[in-house]
TrEMBL record:
The keyword Disulfide bond does not apply. The lineage of its organism: Bacteria, Bacillati, Chloroflexota, Chloroflexia, Chloroflexales. The keyword Phosphoprotein does not apply. It comes from the Bacteria. GO terms for molecular function: hydrolase activity. Keywords: Hydrolase. Gene3D superfamilies: alpha/beta hydrolase. One of its GO terms (cellular component) is membrane. Residues 22-267 form the AB hydrolase-1 domain. This is Alpha/beta hydrolase fold protein.
Length: 280
């Protein structure tokens, strides 16, 4: 594990394979970099695969006075780490949800650094929809954060409960999700580090996702972009992915008919085949 320190934050990353090309995987809200175990193994033939933290997501560390995260700070922290990982070479960014937002924004801001992007169910603008959108609205009400904290603590303490919650509130087909061995394995591997995450730090990112907006940056993207989105996404409506495809010149959109916010788990074979064909 390697790390970088910037503006009071420590972000960590892990290298999973070696090669001439560098692919950096960035997870979404409340996840951690261990969640990419299957994907980094699958993509190892493309080169050096690296998984990178989001701020405040274990094992990343925050300053003692951490109370707020702006879009500018999020992007600056990720950019600092990516520059260190890249070591002067162009990279491919593969991001899910918030990680997809980061990948797209940095592609616009740093065209000499980012050579292509795979954005899976990316957040383009806030607020979120579904249960996460409800949390965002409730956070400002009396007792709202307490409700949020108790529920997230329950997901940290109970693996069956978090499996049920992800299937119910993130997937496009909860019944099919519960039978999905790919999703089961990913959550079981990710949950150990998730138990050590600070719920307060997760809430800080969730508040940012209520007001984030990368639309002003998107039309500056010039590198190849592949967008993967589930038509039944209850967190980031499919309209955001369609808007992206219309505004990023030459981008490709894969809509997964029965999937929700986790198309790379819910339709693994279809999504992996499409990404491989696109990357060549």
């Amino acid at each position: 594990m390697q790390s970088t320190y910037h503006r009071g934050h420590t972000l960590t990353w892990e290298e999973h394979s070696q090669g001439q090309n560098t692919l950096i995987f960035i997870n979404g809200y409340s996840a951690n970099r261990s969640i990419w175990r299957h994907e980094v193994a699958h993509m190892a033939t493309y080169g050096r695969c690296v998984s990178l933290d989001l701020p405040g997501h274990y094992p990343a560390q925050v300053p003692p006075d951490y109370r707020e995260l702006s879009q500018e700070l999020l992007l600056d922290l990720e950019l600092r780490a990516i520059r260190e990982i890249a070591n002067g070479q162009p990279v491919t960014l593969i991001g899910h949800s918030t990680g997809g937002m980061v990948a797209l924004a940095l592609a616009a801001m740093q065209p000499e650094l980012v050579q292509r992007v795979v954005a899976i169910a990316p957040v383009v603008w806030g607020p979120l929809s579904g249960f996460l959108g409800l949390y965002q609205r409730q956070m400002y009400l009396l007792g709202g954060y307490r409700f949020y904290w108790l529920n997230y603590r329950a997901t940290q303490c109970s693996l069956p409960y978090v499996k049920w919650g992800i299937g119910q509130f993130y997937s496009g087909d909860p019944a099919a999700y519960r039978r999905n061995p790919r999703a089961k394995a990913a959550v079981e591997h990710w949950h150990h580090d998730y138990q050590r995450s600070s719920i307060r730090n997760l809430a800080i990112l969730l508040k940012l996702l209520e007001r984030c907006d990368i639309r002003p940056l998107v039309e500056q993207i010039r590198c190849p972009v592949m967008i993967v989105a589930g038509r039944r996404d209850p967190v980031v409506p499919i309209q955001q992915a369609r808007w992206l495809q219309q505004h990023v010149v030459g981008s490709q959109l894969l809509e997964v008919a029965e999937a929700g916010h986790l198309p790379h788990w819910e339709a693994t074979d279809q999504v992996e085949a499409a990404i491989r064909a696109w990357m060549g």
